[in-house]
């Protein structure tokens, strides 16, 4: 099969809860948050488990779980297609699912992936091919309140200056993504 074109990464997000929880998962002071990442084919592996941790940590940073103690919130992310920048797509799908569900949040967040080319050029939202050719790939989870980094993932090597350059580009791109979120919400509620 041919490789998907640029922008062809898609993730389906489903959010369940807040629901009653019993036993060891119950937290007395806040909601227990679980994130499950399902690959397009096969069973989840080490890569999915690592991404689940980053996704859960990012969600926990903004979910006001104290408003739903002794409950569970489960977020399931199913990869439909991967044309590159998958982790940032998962972050964006997770945030939109939380927003759509009405779970109380302190802020929104978005994911931005940057690839560093061999010559040091920064490529935003890289395709699978661009990721394969990159010297480093960095993904940032950025909050909407102060544009601060909630989580980061990197693969490959880059200098501190290059990382800062990627972060600055990601923070600028975050403005566009948050604008997209606003448009999505506006479209949804203008129909009802």
Describe the protein's architecture and organization:
This protein is globular. Helix 1 crosses helix 2. It has four helices and seven strands; from the N terminus they run ββαβαββαββα. The model has no long low-confidence stretch (mean pLDDT 90). The protein has one domain (10-190). The chain has helices at 46-62, 86-101, 128-133, 160-191; strands at 10-20, 32-38, 71-81, 109-116, 122-124, 136-143, 149-156. It is of the alpha+beta class.
- What can be said about the biggest beta sheet? 4 strands, antiparallel
Could you list the spans in which at least 5 consecutive residues all have pLDDT below 50?
none
Q: Strand tally, please?
A: 7
- Written as H for each helix and E for each strand, in order along the chain, the element string is EEHEHEEHEEH
Strand content: 25-35%
The rough form would be described as globular
Q: Which strand order spans the largest sheet, edge to edge or round the barrel? A: 5-4-6-7
Helical run tally: 4
Span between termini: 41 Å
Averaged pLDDT, please? Answer: 90
Helix content: 25-40%
* Helix/strand structural class: alpha+beta
Number of spatially distinct domains:
1
* CA gyration radius, whole angstroms: 17 Å
Write a short abstract of this structure:
With 192 residues, this protein is an alpha+beta fold. The chain has helices at residues 46-62, 86-101, 128-133, 160-191, and strands at residues 10-20, 32-38, 71-81, 109-116, 122-124, 136-143, 149-156. A hairpin with a 5-residue loop joins strand 4 and strand 5.
């Amino acid at each position: 099969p041919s490789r998907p074109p640029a922008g062809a990464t898609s993730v389906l997000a489903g959010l369940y809860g807040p629901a009653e929880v019993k036993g060891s998962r119950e937290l007395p002071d806040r909601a227990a948050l679980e994130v499950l990442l399902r690959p397009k084919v096969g069973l989840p592996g080490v890569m999915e488990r690592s991404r689940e941790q980053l996704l859960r940590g990012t969600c926990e940073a903004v979910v006001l779980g104290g408003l739903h103690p002794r409950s569970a919130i489960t977020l399931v992310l199913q990869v439909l297609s991967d044309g590159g920048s998958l982790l940032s797509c998962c972050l964006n799908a997770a945030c939109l699912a939380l927003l759509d569900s009405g779970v109380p949040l302190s802020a929104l967040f978005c994911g931005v992936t940057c690839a560093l080319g061999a010559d040091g050029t920064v490529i935003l939202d890289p395709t699978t091919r661009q990721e394969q050719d990159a010297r480093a790939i960095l993904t940032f989870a950025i909050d909407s309140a102060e544009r601060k980094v909630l989580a980061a993932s990197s693969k490959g090597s880059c200098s501190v200056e290059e990382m800062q350059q990627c972060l600055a580009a990601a923070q600028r791109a975050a403005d566009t993504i948050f604008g997209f979120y606003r448009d999505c919400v506006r479209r949804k509620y203008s129909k009802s």
